[in-house]
Amino acid sequence: MARVTCIVLFIVAISLRSIQADDSNDSEPDIDLDQIVMECSEKFDIPFPQIPAALRAANAHALKPCFWSCCFMKVGVINSKGQYDVDFTLDLAKKMLGRQDEKKVEATVKDCESVNDAPVSDGNAGCERSLLLATCLLDNCKKNFPEIFGH
C-alpha cells in the first residue's frame, strides 16, 4: 500500500514514489514513519493534508523548516549536530528500496551532500539545513524521477 508518511520521511523525494510495503519484509527499517510524521506535524501545527500537497508540488518551503528537521532527525537523516548524514541516508534508501533505481537513488542522495557546507544560523537545531536538504532532494528527484511529478 502507498504510504504518505514514507513520502515525507524517506528523503522527501525518493519517498514520493509509491513504495509497496510488506509488513513481513525484514529489510524494511524499523522506523514508525506514521508516528514520526504525526508527532512532527502536530508539534509544528501542520495540517496533514498540507504535507503530501507540498511534496507533490515539490515545494519544501510550504512546510515549516523545523518540521523537516523534526522528521529528518527522528529518522537519522539529519544527525544530532544538525548535519546531513549521507551514509546513513544511503543505507536507509537501500534498505527501503533494495536495488530499485539504485543509481538514481544514490545520485539523488549524494548530490545534496553540499548542504552540510551551507552556513546556517540555527546550529544543531538543523531546521535551516533540513529545509535546504528537503529543497535539494526535491529538486534532484524532479530531475532523476520526473515520472513522480507527472513530467
Automatic annotation (TrEMBL):
Organism field: Spodoptera exigua (Beet armyworm)
Name of protein: SexiOBP8
Source taxonomy: Eukaryota, Metazoa, Ecdysozoa, Arthropoda, Hexapoda
Coiled coil: none
Presence of the UniProt keyword Signal in the record: yes
Xref: SMART domains: PhBP
GO MF, one annotated term: odorant binding
Alphabetical UniProt keywords: Signal
InterPro entries: PBP/GOBP (IPR006170), PBP_GOBP_sf (IPR036728)
Signal peptide as annotated in the record: 1-21
